[in-house]
Amino acid sequence: MADELEDLVDIDVYDDGKPVEFGWLQGPNAAAILAAVRGQGPVPKTGLATRRQLRALGLRPGGQNAMPGLSWRNGRRKAYFYRIELALPKRTPTLAQERALDRAMAARQTCPTCRRRYHYCLPLRTLGSCLECYDGTPADPATYTLPPGHTLAA
Ligand SMILES: [Zn+2]
């Protein structure tokens, strides 16, 4: 059992037995990655990037383990690194997923009484409607859209 667990140790090409820690711009290819994040250069094939940097490069960690890391401000700030060569392209949601997301948001933003869709989520669980329907607080017309087919009474 103990032997099996030891077999699962993650092998790290940058590992020299000590916990890896880099200062600002000291990681492998750090300068090239920073330039790519800023749109000033190509995405390097190898190197270590933080999750935010991966995102800016259109990548995601893709299931790899995070490794420590970057530390700055005397070790009070830390970030985890991911290997660019193991990162995968960022997933773009399918149309069906987008539709499902929009439907879920619409349910939370639409007042069941006046059918207006607000740009924020309504307190449906507590008030059950928008503030204007609940207690007459006038809603800012800039914060909602009218349901399709609805025309303003003028
Ligand atoms: Zn309402």
Automatic annotation (TrEMBL):
This is Uncharacterized protein. It comes from Streptomyces coelicolor (strain ATCC BAA-471 / A3(2) / M145).
